[in-house]
Amino acid sequence: DGGITQSPKYLFRKEGQNVTLSCEQNLNHDAMYWYRQDPGQGLRLIYYSQIVNDFQKGDIAEGYSVSREKKESFPLTVTSAQKNPTAFYLCASSPDGDRTGGYEQYFGPGTRLTVT
Amino acid sequence: AQSVTQLGSHVSVSEGALVLLRCNYSSSVPPYLFWYVQYPNQGLQLLLKYTSAATLVKGINGFEAEFKKSETSFHLTKPSAHMSDAAEYFCAVSELKGKLIFGQGTTLQVKP
């Protein structure tokens, strides 16, 4: 079955530690996205990538980093510089990130990160 | 810049009653609009999308939405609510480079 996988489902870390969230897709999509979800705030875009070896900052990129070395993978690192990292993180992909709309995004199941 | 406003963070209906979730958008170009549903601790699932082919869009699970340009609205409806419809619903508008702008979400509660 084609889809997006995120691992792990739940992640616990101590404050001051970096942590990497995994996102893999086998849909052959060009574009991939990372969102952060907090209660009552909808989804906020962290980073996105339209093509391998290229990515752009979203609305709340500070304290996060990404890489896109392979088409199917887009890992997100939450660094110790992120002041409030506890949240639900969602990865998504879409067939073509270069068009002006029209394509929906497909979402993974999410990773809930808790930092204490 | 595009934006989305969902009116009402919580909506409660009785089982069998009409579901109406409101979404208004702001866009400087003809918009592409989407409704997604999210069950607790899960990712988002696409319910339906508007891409200018027809103003009344039918989606999965009996939901539909009507695009009204004059009102800049894209409200989501379902004639008869089911207990399994209880979830959070997000309206989104497409921006440049495939990005989506999401509303704040509306939590739908269905009472027996």
What are its keywords?
heterodimer; A: 116 residues; mainly beta; 7-stranded mixed sheet; 0% helix; globular; B: 112 residues; 5-stranded antiparallel sheet; 11 strands
Explain this structure to me?
The complex is a heterodimer of chains A (116) and B (112). Chain A has 116 residues and is mainly beta. Chain A is built from no helices and eleven strands. Chain A has strands spanning 4-7, 10-13, 19-25, 31-37, 43-51, 54-57, 64-66, 76-78, 87-94, 106-107, 111-115. The model of chain B has no long low-confidence stretch (mean pLDDT 92). Classes of the chains: A mainly beta (116), B mainly beta (112).
Which helices and strands appear, and what pairs or packs with what?
The complex is a heterodimer of chains A (116) and B (112).
Chain A: E1 4-7, E2 10-13, E3 19-25, E4 31-37, E5 43-51, E6 54-57, E7 64-66, E8 76-78, E9 87-94, E10 106-107, E11 111-115
Chain B: E1 3-7, E2 10-14, E3 19-26, E4 33-38, E5 44-50, E6 56-58, E7 64-68, E8 73-78, E9 87-94, E10 100-102, E11 106-111
Parallel strand pairs in B: 2-11
Antiparallel strand pairs in B: 1-3, 3-8, 4-5, 4-9, 6-7, 7-8, 9-10, 9-11
Quick recap:
The complex is a heterodimer of chains A (116) and B (112). Chain A is mainly β and 116 residues long.
Helices and strands of chain A, in order, run as: EEEEEEEEEEE
Kindly state the mean pLDDT of chain B as a whole number? 92
Low-confidence stretches of chain A: none
> What is the percentage of strand-forming residues of chain B?
over 45%
Number of DSSP strand runs of chain B: 11
Main sheet summary of chain A: 7 strands, mixed
Rough outline of chain B: globular
Summarize the amount of helix of chain B as a percent range.
Answer: under 10%
